[in-house]
Every structure is written in C-alpha cells, then in structure tokens.
Design goal:
The structure holds two protein chains of two kinds.
Chain A lengths: L4 E12 L2 E12 L3 E5 L6 H9 L6 E6 L2 E2 L10 E4 L11 H11 L4 H14 L15 H13 L5 E5 L7 H18 L2 E6 L2 H7 L2 E6 L2 E6 L1 H6 L4 H6 L4 E9 L2 E4 L2 E4 L9 E7 L5 E3 L6 E10 L4 E7 L2 E7 L8 E5 L6 E3 L15
Helix pairs in contact in A: 2-3, 2-4, 3-4
Chain B lengths: L1 H27 L16 H8 L1 H33 L3 H16 L2 H18 L7 H26 L2 H9 L4 H30 L2 H6 L7 H7 L7 H29 L6 H25 L10 E7 L5 H11 L2 E7 L2 H10 L6 E2 L3 H9 L3 E2 L14 H7 L10 E13 L22 E4 L2 H11 L9 H14 L3 E5 L2 H7 L5 E5 H10 L3 E4 L7 E6 L1 E2 L5 H11 L2 H11 L6 H6 L2 H4 L8 H6 L8 H15 L2
Parallel strand pairs in B: 1-2, 1-3, 6-7, 6-8
Antiparallel strand pairs in B: 4-11, 5-8, 5-9, 5-10
Classes of the chains: A alpha+beta, B alpha/beta.
Chain lengths: 358, 623
C-alpha cells in the first residue's frame, strides 16, 4: 500500500490573516487514482490543491512526492500540471503557441513539439484549431485547450481546480465524461477540486469531503453516499433526513418516539445519536402499515421522481418516490433496517450539517 | 430633421472652437509678413529659417532628449512599481496609489520649486545635481512616473493572475513567466503610459523652468523667453510641424486599435514591416537629438553664464566672441525682471552676467546681490554716452555695479490716418473721440506712469493722494481703452485695429517699418526712460570672463550688430556714429536731450508701495 502513495500531505496547516484555512491536514493520493476534494467554498480544498501545485507554502507540515520532500520546491520544478478554474490561456498567443509553451521552455525539438500539439488537439477533439486565438473559442473549448496545454508536458499528476465551474449544465456533463475518458487514456493521477457533489460522485475513485479546514470523510463515492460519517457529510452529499434520535440498544433506535429496527451496533444503550435516512429510502404505505403516521403537505414533480414533504410526529420528512401521493393524504412511513444510518452526535462545529452553498 | 441640423451645427461649433486656434497658427506659419495682423503672401521662408536656426533646433533636440529619456526611465520604474503595488493587499495598495498620485495632482509650480530646492541642497554634496540638463531629466522622470503607474495598474488588474501561475506551472521561471506572459498582456498599458509620459514631458513648462540650468532650453522655455519681443514666425512653423506630428501619431495609434479589434494575428511579414517603421522612427528621433548636440567636449572649456532678456542679443555676437576668445558662452533668457530675480537670488545657477532693468538693479544692489565691476578691464566703457551713465546714477549712485546696454522711452504710438490732430500730450488718451480706440500696457507701473505724468507728478510717487488721483484718472479713461495688452500693441497697430497705443520706443521702429502710417511721440509732460544694464552677481564663477564679454559688447561694431538685431536704442555713442545718418537722426531711436531731460527712470519703491500700487491696479481692472 505504501508503495502506491504518489503524493503524501503530512500535518499541513495554513493560515491566512490569522485564520486557519487548513488545520493539521493529513492525506495521501495514490498513483493513477481520480481523487476529488469536495466541500463548500472556504473549506480549504483549493488551498490544498495550491499547496500540491506549489503556489502556496504550508505554514507547517510537508508535502512528499514519490517519497521526496517537495514542500519548498517552486511550481516550475514540480512534475505536475494544473488546469485552472478560469482556463488562464495566454491571450496574446495562438492555440498552438499556448500548447507549445511548456515544451519550448523545456527546449524540445520543433518536430517533437509539432507532433505533441497535433496529438493533444486530437485528444481533446479540437484538431485544426492551431492558429485560432484563445478568445475566439467557447468556454468549453478553452477548457479543453487548457487541459491539452497541461498534458503535453506528460505530468504524473494533473491538478484540476473547479475546471467545469464556468460551463453550463449540459457542457459540464459532457466534459465530465470527457475527463473520465482522458484519465483512462493517459493513465495518470487526477486531483480534482469541486463543490459539486454530483460531479464528484460521477467521476471519482476517491472523494475527500472537507469543511472548515478539516477532512470530514474519505471514501469511495458509494461509501460517502451510503454511509456518511457525520451530519455534515450526510447533508452535503445529496438530500437527507437527519433526525435526532436515541439508540435504545444494538439494532434498535427510537426515532421521534417510534422504534425502528436497524443494523448498526456499538452505539451504546439509551444514547442520543443522529439518524440519516435518504429520501428515496422512505416507503409511503397505508397508515396502518407504517411505523409512524403522517400527512403529505407538499408535492413537487422533479422529472425522475416526485419530491414530497410528510409531516409526522412533529418532523417534516423529505421523501422521493416515483409514485405520487396527493397532498392531504394520511400515510404510513416505513424504512427497511439497512437504510437507517446511525451517526454519533457532532463533536465540533465543522461536523454539523450545513446548507451546501452552490 | 431640424433636430439633426441643430445637432450638426452644435458639433461644427465645437470643432471650430477646438481647432480655430490651430488653423490660425498653421496659416500664419505660411505668412510672409512678420506681423500676424497682415497677410504678406504665401511662403515657406519660416520653415527654412526654423531649420537654419541653431537655437530652435537645439531646443527641439533637448526637448526630445528629455522626453525620450524621461519617458523610458519613467516607464521602467513605473511599470515595476505598478507590478509591486498590484501584488499588495488592497489597503496598502490604495495607500500607495494615493501616495503616487499626489505628484500628479500637485500644482506644477509646487513640484517645480520643491524639486529645485532639493537639487540645490543636493548639489552641495553631489555636484551631479547642479541645475542643468540632468536635473531637468530627473524632474521629468519624477512627474512622469505616476502617469505610467496609472495606465499600467488597471491593465494589471484585468490580467488574470492565474495566467502567471499557469506559466510557472508549465515550467517557466518567475522571470520568464513575467516576460513571456505578463508583459505581453499589459503591453498596451505600458505603451500608453510611455506615450503619456512622452507627451507630458513635451508639454511641460513650469517644472522645466525651475529645474533647468543655464543654457538648457526646451521648446517651451525657449518660446516663453521670446514673449517680451513677440513670438517669431519660425516658432509658428515649428508649432505647426509639432501639431502635424502629434496628429500623425494619434492616427497611427487609432489605426493600431482598429487592427486589434479585427482579432487577427498579424502575419510575420506585416510584423516585420511594423517593426521596421518603429525602428526608422526611433532612429530619426535619435538623429535629431544628435544633430542638436554638436559639442561634446565642452566640460573643461572656460565659460561664462549669461542671463539676458529673450531676443536681446544677436546670436552672431556670441559666436564671434567665442571664436575670438575661446570662452564658451552659456546663454539663457528670461521674460520679465520678476522671473529673473528669484532665479538669481536662489543661487541655483551661478550667473556671470545678468541684464536687469533700472529699478531691479536698485533692488539687487540694496540686497547686496551684485559684485562691483572692475572697469579697468573694460576700456570700451568710454564708448557709453555720458548722459546714460549719469542716468544710471538714479539706481546705481556711484556707477559701480552696472554697464548700460539698451535703453528706450515709453510713448504714444498713433495712426496718422485715424488721428488727424497733432499728438504731443498724454491728454489725447482721455479724449472721448477715441472711445474704444486706445491700447494700454497691461502693467501696473507703466499705466500709473502715464496717469502720474499727465497729472505732473513723479512716476515714482508713493504719495497716497497722488496715487488715488492717478487711479481715478485711469478709471475715467476706461471707456476709451480697447484693451490692456502687452505685445499685442504692436500687431494691432500694424493691423489698423486701434488708433492709439502706449508702447516702448524700440517696438515703434519695427511697427513703423511694417506700417508707414504709424508715428511715435514722447508726450511733453514727460515719460518713462528705461535702461537695461549688465550687472555681475556676487556668486559668479568667472568674473574676469564676464568683464571680457562686457568689454566686447561695448565695442562700436558689436553695438551696431546688436542694434540691427534688436532695433532698440543703444547707449553706445561710438556705435551710434557708425549707423546710417537717417537712423542716427531718428527721433524715435535717439530722442533729443530735450525729450530725455523730461523723462524719469523707474525706481524700486519697496515692498509696501509695490503692494499698494497692485491694490489700486486691481481695483481699476476689476471695474
């Protein structure tokens, strides 16, 4: 496992104006993985990326690259490349000159450079754009050029700082697949920063959820979605019902006065906990079949499903279902034990649920 | 439709207002007549004379040298400063911005004087800062830097900071990243800054005036020093050329902007042509500067520094003196006594010879600013007429400090076709017949002298009652006065625009040449006799050289050369005898003793009386 580590961040702290942006952060990145730093703005994800890229120096801690300390190495001596949020194409140069920039500095031969330009443009599906100017291209095209400009240098790691942030939804989705394809073809490590949980879930091998300078959870998209470790992660990744409850004993939890069987053990007896139930995991049944009963208070059609609010035992439950139940209907609520996720109460502010900012 | 028409009229009016003065200037530059009131036919003469005029070409080359060097240096410093400021946190940057903007907001005169004081202080320690060409360039760099910062900083703010980081990311060192990525991006701002600095430097008069040393003249200071004798047509020609150049530059810059908009990457050939054009332009500039600076080994040569009125010496006189003695004459000009006085007083430049007027000499003697002249070194002093030496006693009682150079009277210039009656008294200036027909001098002492003399008082009166009377008299005269002017009397009289005008005798000769209907008279009540003399300031560096030059100036044939050039009366009797008979007898150039005996010279009246005169004068002009 240790041999697999490409980048290792050890005890990284960074302060801006006396405020901690990163506090004792530890994280390693494996060779060839697609790792995403996910979190709301101000969580420290971009700073982490900039520390890896060499644009910021941590106040304490060190950055290892293939086992070597590169903490104080300037960006131009690191074997990695960055794709910036605002593309950062050189506006006074042609597309070809942009792509050739890094290669010319490395004094590559003219024919090598020409081959690389052709190859890179083909890779990003923009052959024939050599002599255009950057401001003649659309946002999506500019982003592809930025990627092409980075990858011709054959970096071991590509750092991407919210590269799709400025694109519209359709283009964003297209580019997501494009990036995954590129990752496959190049076989290099991607470190990706975003605040868009859907983007993170779609593309990543590993997601690192961050808030207020701390890592909240590291895991595969499935882990993060299905088994959030705290209220913040649960709330930030997808929609969820987070309900203060009491763990009666192993495999039994009391939610809003009603007892639900669950699968979790080890949370003690009569212990206050938080329960996470995803809205699509709630079944609406006839009142007498439910564990608790409530009344539907609103229904919104969302395309794939209906989003409904159900008032039951003083809590407004968020429910996603493909079957519509009209407003005012009395319903019963059921959740199968596997879909009830028990979490310890937050120990610090950064673990609390927040409204994710978009 | 009507709205359209009005809109067009309005636009036309604005353009007329903006460009009428320049069109006038250009037209006059082709006018064969020296007077701006008369069209003497089309000619290129002034352009030819301009090119031949060494002083003008030299001033032009100085101007360009100062502009190029100061703009280049200011662009380098200003761009670096802007980059530094851009990297600062916002609060600090705002503070820095305010700091660098102050020299720009500051009144030029404050900047000029403070720089001059600084240079004078510094020159005690570092001789390099003695006022001269270097100090002018320093001063121009100083006031140019804010303009560069102001045009580069916004461009930097527009620049995407990640562009610089992207360059680093792609392997460029910070230096390479700056030159390859940041600089090309902010280049339009840098070029604008350079052009702005260049123009500002070309334009400046006030700061240059205070920081320049003797013998250093830019076009603006050169032109200004000619105000007293009237601006020469060569200057019109030069101004017309400069305007055309600026117009051409503007056209080129706009053209460049259009190309940019078309968003085409210029072809390599087009780029090469463009570069060649720039290179040729730059070489031409260097050539002009080079031609203007023929002598490069002037440093070790003996020299004297002369400070004289504008257009008050034939340039050939200087050349001849330099050839004969090997002493280099550093020649500088001033436009009024009041401008000359503080420069000499400050000691910023050690002048060896200065040519002030009577009352100013009295003041300078009083303030112990002058050195006694060793007349043993000036045998030609004997050529100066006795009556003038006696006249000089009124301000230099023992004739120890001054050598008379030029003199004249103040009198009435009148157009014989418009004034049929004989003119012999100041009274005619109050005759209601000549309502709106009279030109008066826009100068306190000159105007009061007219009124005081008419009343039979001394023109140096400090008696409050007499002055009050004179003031009321001048107030009563106002309906008759077409304008209070300085050198326009000459041109307006030539152009038959006024019937009568108060003027210096020297100008009268010139006017008469241009318009034979004009005559000049010194009224019987008496008038002002003025005398400009050479004096040697106490802090001079080469007193012997100065005296050598004085002796040279007193030579009869040199006096004639100067008389031909200046047309003002000479006190040199030997020179006068060499002049043609009719000029010797010309009552304007050489009035008889009866006239001179009725005249008085101005004396310095002290600060208090000066202030009182000025107060009365303001009350007259404001009504």
């Amino acid at each position: 496992m240790a041999k697999d580590k490409l980048i290792d961040l050890i005890n990284i702290s960074k302060k801006f104006d006396d405020q901690y942006v990163l506090d004792e952060l530890n994280l390693y990145i494996r060779r060839n993985e697609f790792l995403t730093l996910l979190g709301p703005s101000g969580c420290g994800k971009t700073t982490t990326l900039r520390i890896i890229g060499g644009f910021e120096t941590p106040d304490t801690g060190s950055v290892l690259f293939e086992g070597k300390d590169i903490t104080s190495l300037p960006p131009y001596q690191r074997n990695l490349n960055t794709v910036f949020q605002k593309y950062a194409l050189f506006t006074h140069m042609t597309i070809a000159e942009n792509i050739a920039f890094g290669l010319k500095i490395k004094k590559k031969s003219q024919s090598y450079i020409q081959d690389k330009i052709k190859y890179a443009l083909k890779l990003v599906n923009l052959d024939g754009y050599e002599n255009r100017r950057a401001d003649q291209l659309s946002g999506g095209q500019q982003q592809r050029i930025a990627i092409a400009r980075a990858i011709v240098n054959e970096p071991k790691v590509l750092l991407l700082d919210e590269p799709l942030g400025a694109l519209d939804l359709k283009l964003r989705q297209e580019m997501q697949y494009e990036l995954m394809r590129l990752k496959e073809e190049l076989g290099i490590t991607f470190v990706y920063v975003t605040h868009d949980q859907e983007e993170a879930l779609t593309m990543s091998d590993t997601i690192v959820v961050m808030n207020q300078g701390y890592i909240q959870q590291i895991g595969t998209p499935e882990d993060i979605y299905n088994e959030p470790e705290n209220a913040f992660v649960a709330d930030f990744i997808g929609d969820s019902n987070i309900i203060p409850s009491i763990m009666i004993e192993d495999r039994l939890v009391e939610i809003l006065g009603a007892r639900f069987p669950c699968v979790d053990v080890g949370f003690g007896q009569d212990n206050p906990v938080d329960v996470v139930i995803r809205p699509e995991d709630i079944e609406l049944v006839d009142p007498e079949d439910g564990i608790i009963q409530g009344i539907v208070t609103s229904v919104i059609f969302k395309g794939v499903h209906y989003e409904m609010d159900v008032m039951a035992n003083g809590f407004e439950w968020l429910v996603h279902s493909t079957n519509m139940v009209p407003v005012g209907t009395r319903v019963g609520i059921r959740v199968i034990p596997f879909n009830i996720q028990i979490m310890n109460k937050p120990e610090s502010e950064d673990e609390e649920a927040v409204v994710p900012d978009e | 439709m009507v709205k359209r028409f009005i809109e067009k009229c309005y636009l036309a009016m604005i353009f007329i207002l903006l460009y009428a003065p320049i069109v006038t200037l250009i037209v006059l530059s082709f006018n064969r007549s020296k007077s701006r009131a008369k069209w003497g036919g089309f000619t290129f003469q002034w352009y030819v004379e301009m090119v031949k005029n060494e002083q003008i070409i030299r001033a032009l080359s100085t101007t360009l040298l100062v502009a190029v060097v100061s703009a280049v240096v200011a662009t380098l410093i200003g761009t670096a400063a802007a980059i530094g400021m851009n990297a600062m946190p916002k609060k600090k940057r705002t503070l820095m911005m305010a700091g660098t903007n102050i020299p720009m907001m500051n009144a030029d005169i404050v900047t000029g004087i403070s720089l001059m004081l600084l240079f004078i202080r510094l020159s005690d320690v570092v001789p390099f800062f003695r006022l001269g060409l270097a100090t002018v360039i320093f001063a121009h760099i100083t006031f140019n830097i804010p303009y560069v910062i102001l045009s580069v900083l916004p461009k930097l703010k527009q620049t995407n900071r990640s562009m610089y980081e992207a360059a680093l990311d792609l392997g460029a060192t910070p230096l390479a990243a700056f030159f390859k990525v940041v600089l090309p991006d902010i280049m339009p701002g840098v070029v604008t800054g350079f052009l702005l600095a260049f123009t500002m430097s070309l334009d400046d008069f006030i700061i240059t005036h205070f920081t320049k040393g003797a013998g250093v003249d830019t076009l603006s200071t050169k032109i200004y020093s000619e105000v007293r004798k009237g601006i020469k047509p060569e200057i019109y020609a030069l101004s017309a050329l400069m305007f055309t150049t600026v117009l051409l530059l503007l056209f080129l810059i706009n053209k460049r902007g259009e190309e940019k908009k078309e968003r085409r990457i210029p072809s390599a050939a087009a780029l090469r042509v463009k570069r060649a054009v720039y290179a040729v332009g730059f070489l031409l500039l260097l050539l002009v500067i080079w031609i203007g600076y023929p002598g490069k080994d002037e440093e070790k040569q003996e020299q004297i520094v002369v400070y004289n009125w504008g257009e008050y010496m034939d340039p050939d006189v200087i050349t001849q003196f330099e050839k004969e003695t090997g002493i280099k004459v550093v020649y500088e000009e001033f436009e009024t006594n009041e401008i000359m006085y503080p420069k000499v007083k400050s000691g910023a430049v050690a002048y060896d010879l200065v040519c002030p007027s009577d009352y100013m000499i009295q003041r300078m003697i009083g303030e112990d600013m002058l050195a006694k002249i060793n007349f043993d070194n000036i045998p030609n002093y004997k050529n100066i007429g006795k009556s003038y030496i006696d006249g000089a006693k009124s301000f230099d009682p023992k004739n120890e400090y001054s050598v008379p150079y030029i003199w004249g009277t103040v009198g009435i210039l009148y157009n014989k076709k418009m004034v049929k009656e004989p003119v012999d008294s100041w009274d005619i200036l109050w005759d209601p017949k000549y309502k709106d027909q009279i030109l008066m001098q826009d100068s306190v002492r000159d105007s009061f002298a007219v009124a005081l003399k008419k009343l039979g008082y001394s023109l140096n009166s400090t008696d409050m009652d007499e002055l009050e009377e004179a003031k009321n008299l001048l107030l009563r005269q106002k309906p008759n006065v077409q304008a209070y002017v300085i050198d326009q009397v000459r041109d307006k009289m030539i152009g038959n625009e006024a019937a009568l005008g108060v003027i210096y005798s020297g100008e009268a000769i010139y006017v008469q040449k241009e318009n034979p209907d004009i005559d000049y008279v010194v009224p019987k009540e008496g008038s002002n006799l003025w005398l400009d003399c050479w004096v040697i300031p106490k802090n001079c560096k080469n007193k012997e050289g100065a005296e050598k030059f004085l002796n040279f100036l007193c030579r009869p044939e040199i006096g004639v050369m100067n008389f031909d050039y200046i047309t003002y009366s000479t006190p040199n009797e030997a020179s006068r005898k060499l002049l043609p008979e009719e000029i010797q007898k010309n009552p304007i150039a050489f009035p008889g003793d009866d006239i001179i005996s009725r005249c008085e010279t101005f004396r310095y009246l002290g600060e208090e009386a000066d202030a009182y005169y000025n107060k009365l004068w303001r009350s007259i002009k404001s009504k």
